[in-house]
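Let us work through a complete example step by step.
Step 1: write down the sequence.
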Amino acid sequence: IIGKGGNIINTIKKETDTNITVSSINELNSYNIERIISIKGELDQQMSALETIFSKLWLAYENENARAWHYSTQYYQQQQMMQNFAQHAAMIATVGATGPPLLPMNYSQQQQQQQSMVHQTQTNNSNNSSNKFMEQQPNLSTIYPSSYY
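Step 2: predict the structure and record it as tokens.
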């Protein structure tokens, strides 16, 4: 309401031909948390000044609420984005270690992926012989869509 150097309150005083005083900010304490605005002049001038002051206060209130809503919305959006990122990162880490890549690979990476895989299998031999290793070609149609090879 006061403005820089009192320019807003002085403008209202001139427009309404009233004397307006605002209590000092130094008078605020734990018992008195509000500032008091006094308006002196003719009744219609006082009403005009009061309407102008009220409209300025209401505009400031709406702007503050809009700003608070914007920040809370922005905070919520950032939280959602971080949560989605964490979920996708966990999925990439899980699938990337055991399954097909989630992003397209270049040709040399595809060749490395297509090399034969070695699987270790347990044998149930009665003579307790060592484990067998079997070499097996992957079934590319189940790993990669046709556009990758």
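Step 3: interpret the result. DSSP finds four helices and four strands in the chain.
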